[in-house]
Every structure is written in C-alpha cells, then in structure tokens.
Amino acid sequence: MPTRTLAAPPRLPLVLARGALGSRRKRGWPRALAAPTDRLVLPAARIDPGRLAAYARVCGYPDNASGAVPLTYPHILGFPLAAQLMADRAFPLPLLGLVHTSIEITQVRALRATDRPELTVHTSALRPHHRGTEAVLVTEARLHGELVWSDRSTYLARHSGATGPRPDEAPEPAGSTLAAVATWRLTADLGRRHARVSGDYNPIHLHPWTAKPLGFPRAIAHGMWTVARCAAEAVPLNADRITLRATFGAPVLLPGTVTYTAETTSETTSETTPGTGTRFELRGDGRVHLTGEVVPSAGRS
C-alpha cells in the first residue's frame, strides 16, 4: 500500500474546494470497485487547546480537568487527510454530494491535549449499495507505535444504475422505545459554529441559500455534530476501552428541535468482561436522525 507522509495537515478549505471542482469529472459510477491503495500519514499531529475547547463547547461536552480529548475529536483531526484522499483524482467517487451514513469509533486509550498522535487514513473498501456506491475510510491514531483510537466511516455517493443489495425496508416506528433524556433546541447558526471548530464548510450546513441548490430546504446540522452531541451524553468522562457505533438517518434541519433518548444496556466484551453500555437515538418531527450505541471494548489492535 503506497504511503505518503505529510509534513503538515492539509488545508481543509482548499482540499474541499479542489474536491468540489474535481467532482464534475467523476459523475456516473465506478465500473470497478477497487479501493484506492494510498495511505496518508501525518506524524505527530498537534492538538490545539483553544480549538479543542471551542469544539467541546459547540458539541456540549462538559469541562474535563484531566485534559482528555472527547471521543469524537480525533475524527476532526483526521478529516483533512480523509478529505484529501477523497478529493484525489484516484478516488472514483465525487467528493461533492458524498453522504456520511455511519461511523464506528474504537478507543483503547483517551488521547490528552498534550499528545502528538500519528494519524493515518486509508480507504478500506468500495462496495455497491442499492442507492449508489459506498466508500469505507479508516482513520487511526497511534502513540509510540501503539494504536489507541480508530474510526471507520462510511460515505455514500448516490447515482443511477446502482446494483447493490437492497435491505428489507420496514416502516419507521412511530415512537421510540427508549426513554427521553433531553430536548435540544438548535439555532440556525449551528452549522456555521460547528464549521468554525471542525473546518468542514460544506455549504449544506451554512445557510438556506447555500443548502437549497443541493436539495435541502434549509441548512442541516453536521452529522458529526449529532453523533458528538450524543456521545457527550452517553460516553463517561475519561473512558478508555470503548466503542461507539452510529448510523445517520434523516437530516436535522436548522433551526430545529430534537430529542435525545437512551437506555443503559448490559454488555460483554470479547474478553468476557461484563460492563454497561448505552443505546441512544436522536429524534425530531417524527423522524429518526441518528441511532447508536456505546459499548465496552476489549480494545485489541
């Protein structure tokens, strides 16, 4: 697998602009589902304390005197590398219009703001989907060669001529079986505030006039904000060996009101160590925006 080592993190706004311009020549769908083999590596990534604190505030994470980095923040650190891979000519799907459909994060040890992790990103799979083609991107964080955090994110490019398997589709339940825990009123500028702390200035998140040409009546919340906000409720402070899985559903229109529902579950890791987990959902206007779970993890790399 060819490896490219970067001297500095890519400048995300420039990468996204280049990816948007290159999306036109990637219209249609890939004839061969062979994942690009490039791997990007950023040694000793710096965690900026000010940006980290701003991210925690926007996503609702509580103050943490220990300096532990929120579970979802390494995804933000690694996203410029992932975007650079997806903007590359060798990546067969158009960056503009990719939809983040699911994420799985496994944390062996919580990073601290003073850590300088090595970040690596690669595409692990391209696969057919009944609405188009999915790409699976893997981001990993290592300290002194040891894997401490990883993220598998699935992105969907919708296109005609899709031949992937169609799942059995059942009607969405009218109400959640989980207990309502909190109701959050989301302001119209949430997408812009999250963009400032994440660097993801996708136009669908910024203003109604930038979202409407892309098929949305108003700006929508970042999917990574929804999962981060739920993780802020579901993941204990300073948690180490833990796995979070989430599937994104209906977009959250801004402004809007959503309800976080959750229940505690009993879990067993692969080491047969009992523990507790949390199932959660984010709902609003009769629609499911996010479903997920947090479970204890053996944390093996």
Description:
21% of the residues lie in helices and 34% in strands. By secondary structure, the protein is an alpha+beta fold. It has an 11-stranded mixed beta sheet, covered by helices on one side. Strand 9 (256-268) and strand 10 form a beta hairpin. The protein starts with a strand and ends in a 5-residue tail after the last strand. 40% of the residues are buried.
State the helix count.
Answer: 6
Oligomer, anyone?
single chain
Q: Give unreliable regions as ranges.
A: none
SS-derived structural category: alpha+beta
Number of distinct beta strands:
11
Helix content: 10-25%
Instruction: Please provide the ordered H/E string of secondary-structure elements.
Output: EHEHHEEEEEHHHEEEE
Percentage of residues in strands: 25-35%
**N/C terminus separation:** 19 Å
Give the integer mean of the pLDDT values.
87
Instruction: Specify Rg, calculated over alpha carbons.
Output: 19 Å
Spatial strand sequence of the major β-sheet:
1-2-4-5-6-3-8-11-10-9-7
Q: Main attributes?
A:
301 residues, 6 helices, alpha+beta
Topology record:
Blueprint lengths: L2 E3 L6 H11 L16 E4 L6 H11 L13 H15 L11 E9 L10 E12 L2 E12 L2 E13 L20 E8 L3 H9 L9 H4 L11 H12 L7 E7 L7 E13 L5 E11 L2 E10 L5
Parallel strand pairs: 1-2
Antiparallel strand pairs: 2-4, 3-6, 3-8, 4-5, 5-6, 7-9, 8-11, 9-10, 10-11
Helix pairs in contact: 1-3, 2-4
In short:
The protein is an alpha+beta fold and about 300 residues long. The chain has helices spanning about 10-20, 50-60, 75-85, 190-200, 210, 225-235, and strands at about 5, 40, 100-105, 120-130, 130-145, 145-160, 180-185, 240-250, 255-270, 275-285, 285-295.
